[in-house]
Design brief:
Length: 486
């Protein structure tokens, strides 16, 4: 064989290998998760809101798929965020509640996250916004697989400021315990949120940084986790949105979040990345209803944040991936934010966590290969480890427990807080297909369904435990315990 022929064959092989590598990289989609804070199921037009214009949420619903039975793993900040990033029930990994700035717990760095898995797979990973899984280094996002982080370590209401925007120095007031709200870049504090004027800039600043992240990483696969601090109170909209809605400050904030979503969609379109990017928009839990017109809407579902009723856990979810996900599709299958991790890993080729997770891959459902979702059962845990309800398909069995009630409490308006009432909840069975408001107990009509769900509850108690029945789970892992001085 002549040298020329050998050289020609060698060149062909090199070209084929390069083309294969490029094609392999091309089919690895970018991933963007936008996680709103306290956005209720009914806070945007695709989910029934009136009085607020949300053209970009409407566009997401028109160009992507709208999920109507999507649940946060728990109806509170820290626990929900841990579930989303790790694919685990929060109590499996020792996480519960909402961490305070002085909390001695954090997400264990030994847990693998969407970020760490995608980083290992060669993705550029970045986070913007509210973290709330560890208040100090070494428990910031950069220790959990994110190459970069800019945002707040916890909720934007954890600051020593009253409802009028005045600094609180009276130690008898609860908010006086909070430090000034830090802004973190990587691991270092680069700013402080001290006024409502500072809060007004959060959405715009995070949006601009999100756009820059996309533009700077457009030539390689990336994962962006944008966790907006709002519409969690205190609400604040920038000058370009103040007074623009019919629903006061809350409406203005939703309109600005809608603008933010539009900026991201437009950037993907401009950079020709839309067909290469899975864009997911959801919320960490339902609305904090004691804040009245400063809170959102549960969309008619019962109660809100901090409860196991549908108004607490059922949240909006929109997924856009042009050419892959059905445009204008509606999915009524039971899903959770834990299911995002294995689904994303399936699409990106990233490996799954070594340790056990609870999320279930729904990529086939998302691509229209099936109409049947992979999940039939969802456990409603709350507090440290109380199993308060179990959903099986369209049925929901609620166990006796104590709960807050917004319906029996008081509402407030304009930054003022109302109150909740503690109630004792009896066992009840609800048929969510015919009774989404959880108003009618039908356990006497369907005793066999109750028995079946009780068997699922026993599986959960053996696996994860249940403080309500004094059961210890066999497969739970510990959260990180912060050392003194950190």
């Amino acid at each position: 064989m002549s040298c020329i022929r050998i050289f020609f064959l060698y060149s062909v092989l090199l070209y084929a290998e390069a083309a294969f590598s490029q094609n392999k990289a091309a089919i690895r989609p970018n991933v963007i998760i936008i996680n709103m804070d306290d956005m209720g199921y009914g806070d945007t037009e695709p989910y029934g809101m009136t009085g607020i214009s949300t053209p970009n949420f409407n566009r997401m619903a028109r160009e992507g798929m709208r999920f109507t039975h999507f649940n946060a793993a728990q109806a509170i900040c820290t626990a929900s965020r841990a579930a989303l990033l790790t694919g685990c029930y929060p109590n499996r990994i020792g996480v519960h509640g909402a961490l305070m700035p002085w909390s001695d717990r954090a997400l264990n760095p030994s847990e693998e996250t969407i970020a760490s898995l995608l980083k290992e797979a060669g993705y550029e990973t970045g986070m913007l916004g509210k973290w709330h899984l560890g208040a100090k280094p070494p428990y910031f996002p950069t220790y959990y697989g994110f190459n970069s982080f800019y945002g707040l370590p916890y909720s934007n209401d954890m600051w020593p400021v009253d409802i009028d925007g005045n600094a609180v120095t009276d130690s008898s007031q609860k908010v006086a315990k909070f430090p000034w709200l830090p802004v973190i870049d990587g691991e270092k504090q680069v700013g402080t949120i001290r006024t409502f004027a500072d809060q007004e800039q959060l959405t715009t600043t995070l949006t601009k940084k999100a756009v820059s992240f996309i533009e700077n990483n457009k030539n390689k696969p990336f994962f962006l986790y944008l966790a907006h601090p709002m519409p969690h109170i205190p609400l604040a909209a920038s000058a370009k949105f103040k007074g623009k809605s019919e629903l006061g400050t809350f409406g203005d904030v939703i309109m600005e979040l809608d603008w933010s979503l539009g900026e991201i969609i437009n950037t993907l379109d401009k950079e020709r990345l839309s067909e290469k990017t899975i864009l997911i928009v959801t919320s960490d839990n339902g609305p904090w209803l004691i804040y009245g017109n400063n809170a959102g809407s549960s969309g008619g579902f019962k109660e809100g944040k901090g409860t196991i009723w549908e108004g607490g856990t059922r949240v909006p979810c929109l997924i856009r991936w042009p050419g892959k996900v059905e445009a204008g599709g509606i999915c009524s299958q039971l899903l959770t934010n834990m299911d995002l991790l294995p689904t994303i890993c399936s699409f990106t080729g990233a490996g799954l966590p070594v340790k056990e997770i609870d999320g279930i891959d729904f990529s086939a459902l998302l691509l229209g290969k099936t109409r049947k979702g992979p999940r039939d059962v969802f456990y409603y845990y709350y507090e440290a480890n109380n199993l308060k309800a179990v959903r099986y398909k369209t049925w929901k069995l609620v166990f006796p427990h104590d709960s807050r009630s917004y319906a029996l409490g008081t509402r407030a308006k304009d930054r003022h807080s109302g109150s909740t009432v503690k109630v004792t909840v009896p066992q009840a069975l609800y048929d969510l297909a015919h009774d989404p408001g959880e108003a009618y107990d039908v356990q006497k009509l369907y005793p066999d369904t109750v028995k079946k769900i009780l068997r699922f509850a026993e599986i959960a108690r053996e696996d994860l435990g249940d403080d309500l029945t004094q059961r210890k789970g066999k497969n739970v892992r510990a959260a990180a315990k912060l050392r003194r001085g950190l």
